[in-house]
Amino acid sequence: MDYTTSDDKTTADSGDEAGDNAALTSEQIDDLKAQAAKADENWNRFLRVTADLENFRKRAAREREEAVRYANESLIKKLIPVLDNFEMAIAAASQAPAQAETNQSLQTGVAMIQHQLKNALLETGLEELDAAGKTFDPNWHEAVDQRETTEFAEGQVMQQLRKGYKLRDRLIRPATVVVARKPAT
To answer: Of 174, 143, 171, which Cα lies nearest the Cα of 156?
Structure first.
């Protein structure tokens, strides 16, 4: 019969554990250190992959939003020359000398169609760039000529040959302009 108390067993058990700890070899300690290093490496990799995934989600959402925002860009690029042709037709009709009444009604009809198309494009976010009289900006203007003049300051747009357009904040077509320069003395 065993008459030992539970306190005696605890002391005996703790003695056995202390013996087990003392029995860990340096090889086992090195193995534990390697496993801890591997666990740290895996944790750091997990954090990087999680951050990469979050960045991917944000980038994908931004790209999706931009795609929706500029979805009509190719259509608008095709319609801008139509606006140009309307403006040329109105200018030509206003300069034609014969048949004033017929010419006036044609000019009015074309102007109404142009106005309607322009309003529809404005509602989609298209904005005209008016360059006349402004300082030349290569980000928004395309210079096709420079002319000597004293009427305009050097670097100022003295004539706009073709309107520029932007869709929201993105340039669709730069304004084609003639830029002033000082006369040679």
So the answer is: 143
